[in-house]
Amino acid sequence: MLRQVDAASLESFIDTTIAFVDHSLGTLGIAILSGVLNSLSSLKSSDPSPSPAGTTTPAAQQEEYDPPPRVPSRFIACVTGDASAKRVKDALSSHLSSITILQRQNLKGIQQADVVILACKPKNLKDGILQESGMRQALQGKILISILAGTSVESLEENIYGLTPSYGEEDRCRIVRVMPNTASLIRSSMTVIADSEPSLSSSQAALVTWLLSRIGRVVHLPPYMMDAATALCGSGPAFFALFLEAMADGAVAMGLPRAQAQIMAAQTMKGTAEMVQNGQHPALLREQVCTPGGCTAGGLQVLEDGKVRASLATGIRTASVAASRLGRGEQGVNGPR
User: Fold this and answer.
1) Cβ(63)–Cβ(2) below 8 Å
2) pTM for the whole structure
3) What is the spatial distance between Cα 257 and Cα 263, in angstroms, rounded to a whole number?
4) Do residues 17 and 75 touch, judged by C-beta distance below 8 A?
5) Dihedrals φ, ψ of 85, to 5°?
6) Contact (Cβ atoms closer than 8 angstroms) between residue 276 and residue 270
7) CB 124 within 8 A of CB 23
8) Which of 159, 192, 241, 300 has its CA 20 to 30 A from that of 107?
9) Consecutive 10-residue averages of pLDDT for the chain (337 residues)
């Protein structure tokens, strides 16, 4: 059942601490933390939360799930250097009362947390970010949400517990692999949650889904689909941005001012995406715009001749393979093929 959560009911659930573990808490980590904090603030105030661009996020665009028995009230950002700590403070200045920033104290942060979000780069696993003495005990019984591209649950378990079977299921954490994107910052992420095996408890699943629905839409997929989902949803914003930029460039070349061209291209892309989300098939939508012998038909022919469709599809496939290789700890994954 979906319903709007009011501030009074939210207050009765608050008692969970979430730790974000990252060497630098980069763009995606800050986007997720900001999105969750903005969502919780808007629930408390019953007002839409302003985005960094000065707009608001319509409630109708966000899936509202019944809150789980426990929702977050306190957040811990585990980083390394002073520059990283400053970036968190600057980016989340309006929420600092809810955030504790720990430098080089991952173990302490995880010990204090109920849920851990691992937001580092896959290569940081080799640096022992989860192998500090006492880490296994600190993680025991907790939920570890991983947004590491290409890194399977099995790889994370091996990194934490090794290959020996000495740690039974009751002594381990529950690892959940997810892939959000940078639109988390404005609560418009497309987040993919990998199905867990064995399944999470109902309360654990409710918490993970509710938490990630705070930053946009969520879908659940089998684990073997996660590399492709990483390419489509995780890398996708960069691909769309390139396409949008190219469209604006073409308009500027024909005389439109840059600022207006960018606004027009972005709104056109947004409107088209919303029509698809409302049930329009992309192919039918394209045909509806494409009058025989018209300007759209001529422009589409140039794009097809330039293999834009094939290049975009190949880009997704290449990014998917690269995500898988990154998860295996390989370097130079985008070298010559």
Assistant:
1) yes
2) 0.84
3) 10
4) yes
5) -60, -40
6) no
7) yes
8) 192
9) 41 67 79 84 60 41 64 87 91 91 93 92 81 91 91 90 71 92 90 93 89 92 95 96 98 98 98 96 96 96 97 96 85 78
